[in-house]
Amino acid sequence: MGIQERKQRERERRRQQIMIAAKRVFSVKGFNRATMEDIAKEAELSPGTLYLYFKNKDELFSSLSIRILQYLNIRLEHVANDRSLENGEQKIDALREAMLDVYKFDPLMLINMFHLQSGETIRNLSPELFSEIKILSRNSLTSMSRIFEEGRSEGFLIDKPAAVFADIVLAMFSGIVLWEESKKMIHEEKNFLEQTLNTAFEIFNRGIRK
């Protein structure tokens, strides 16, 4: 292993160390109350070291969201390309399972991602990180559109653009995730997300069929 490769591995290891610490701090304190100093203390590093890897708290927070966006892309592409699903109806049903799986994969980061995309934080990112988030989000919508386009070509969906169906599903999913999270302040021990998401998909599926 060359010197350059060792340096790159060490840099990536340190970056992951910071992100793991940041996730712990954000989960306890939330984004607004957490500071770079808190994260540095959790990571057992100096605050100055953090700024060698992330230009600010917003960028660190957003880098954590990249992971859940990548997983969302993987799950949606799998459904869109899965040849074991015989028709569009099965793929639309598998889409519901994929969205629920993404939530279960990392609920905290999914919630953070939706907050990120709807807030001012995204304006403070580096151009590279902002571009990556845009590309991953666009790819997710493209994969979903392909699923609905297959259903339209089979003739059992109403004559509306597949991209519109994809927009509705993502908006429905993000809205339910954020709403259920806000309800925990009232009923902390209860989680109705799976039940609510299943019901929402059932109503949505009825509405888009001929």
Largest sheet: none
Gyration radius, in Å = 20 Å
User: Low-confidence runs (pLDDT<50, min 5 residues)?
Assistant: none
Relative strand content: under 5%
CATH homologous superfamily placement of the largest domain: Tetracycline Repressor, domain 2
Order of helices and strands: HHHHHHHHH
Strand-pairing-aware structural class? mainly alpha
Give the CA-based shape. Answer: globular
Short description:
The protein has helices spanning 3-33, 36-43, 47-50, 57-81, 88-105, 107-118, 127-153, 162-183, 193-208.
SSE topology:
Elements: H1 3-33, H2 36-43, H3 47-50, H4 57-81, H5 88-105, H6 107-118, H7 127-153, H8 162-183, H9 193-208
Helix pairs in contact: 1-2, 1-4, 4-5, 4-6, 4-7, 5-7, 6-8, 7-8, 8-9
Question: Can you give a write-up of this model?
Answer:
The protein has 210 residues and is an all-alpha fold. It is built from 9 helices and no strands. Helix 4 crosses helix 6 (107-118), helix 5 (88-105) packs antiparallel against helix 7 (127-153) and helix 8 runs antiparallel to helix 9. The relative contact order is 0.10. The model has no long low-confidence stretch (mean pLDDT 88).
